[in-house]
Design goal:
Blueprint lengths: L3 H4 L1 E5 L6 H12 L3 E3 H14 L7 H10 L2 E3 L4 E3 L2 E2 L7 H11 L2 H18 L2 E5 L2 H5 L5 E6 L2 H12 L3 H17 L12 E4 L5 H15 L2
Parallel strand pairs: 1-6, 1-7, 2-6, 7-8
Antiparallel strand pairs: 3-4, 4-5
Helix pairs in contact: 2-10, 3-5, 4-6, 5-9, 8-9
Bound molecules: 2'-deoxycytidine-5'-monophosphate (DC).
The site of 2'-deoxycytidine-5'-monophosphate has 14 residues, from helix 3, helix 5 and helix 9.
Length: 219
Amino acid sequence: MVSDAHRRVIAIDGPAGAGKSTIAKALSSRLNMKYLDTGAMYRAVTYEAMLRELDLHDQRCVAQLAQECDLHVGIDRVIINGHDATVAIRSAEVTGNVSTVAANSDVRTEMRVRQQEWATAHGGGVIEGRDIATVVFPNAVLKIFLTASPEVRAQRRVDQSGGDVTEIAAAIAERDLLDRTRADSPLASSSDSIIVDTSNRAIEDVVDEIEKLFLERSL
Ligand code: DC
């Protein structure tokens, strides 16, 4: 049976740099709903595995870490096994390795269960990721797939964290390819997702559109 909390989810999926975090956070505050960044969960497991010098290709070993870890992902803090990994999970090293960990099916199963439990505990929420609409919350009241041109996505990352735009564009393209082509729950839009191109639009404008769609559906 699908719980009502799982229906009261706004699923925000899309590739890196499409504007998911900014838009999902703004929506959650406008609608007074909780916010969950599921990418931060995969990043935290990756960080912890690297800290322990695990072989990231050893699927069993990384899955065991994912199953046993104490993980808290809040709006502005990520704590894994008691230490604050908020900044470290955004490092280039973690970003470069996270797609390997995210392709591990047993890690995904564990994260999916935790995401569903989170939604049950909070009565729904605004949840961003790659497979939220397709796999984790197929009954979400609203499914949005955000996109933007590769140039815009790379420039946004440079504006946020600096770096060379050509190198960042290549790194994003590589990560997207891994995320789109993995066997288990790849990055994809759901047939009932609304595709929103954020390339040449102000954030406020996109948030207004999604808020309107949500309010229409929750009447
Ligand atoms: O959104 P992000 O860039 O922080 O996500 C980090 C990685 O985690 C991304 O490369 C793919 C993976 N991910 C995933 O596989 N499934 C999700 N629901 C969220 C993120």
